[in-house]
């Protein structure tokens, strides 16, 4: 299954081995980087969404993700990531569909480097 293969690659990249639980690793890395709030806290505005989405769709780095994302998928993830309100009840969620996981993973990859992104 593509989703399982993607999570296995992510687990290996995080030093957890294939099939490893990436949730705790994401939580640890998030705590080290002091990621607390949503994108709004970082200075990202909704007016920037079209540019961010266009760049995400053109960037080949999203191709190996466990799930293909459309422009609407990216918009929904960005909307959900604007606040610190959780997208699900489980802070250690590892679902590639979870906006919290996406927000943390993007931050950890340093795709968002400045508040003016």
TrEMBL record:
This is 4-hydroxybutyrate dehydrogenase. It comes from the Bacteria. It comes from Pandoraea anhela.
């Amino acid at each position: 299954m593509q989703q399982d293969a993607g999570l296995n690659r992510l687990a290996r990249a995080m030093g957890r081995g294939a099939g490893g639980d990436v949730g705790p690793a994401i939580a640890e890395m998030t705590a080290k980087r002091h990621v607390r709030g949503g994108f709004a806290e970082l200075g990202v505005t909704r007016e920037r969404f079209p540019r961010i989405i266009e760049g995400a769709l053109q960037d080949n780095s999203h191709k190996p993700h466990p799930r293909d994302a459309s422009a609407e998928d990216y918009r929904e993830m960005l909307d959900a990531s604007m606040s610190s309100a959780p997208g699900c009840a489980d802070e250690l969620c590892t679902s590639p569909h979870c906006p919290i996981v996406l927000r943390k993973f993007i931050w950890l990859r340093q795709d968002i480097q400045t508040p003016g992104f």
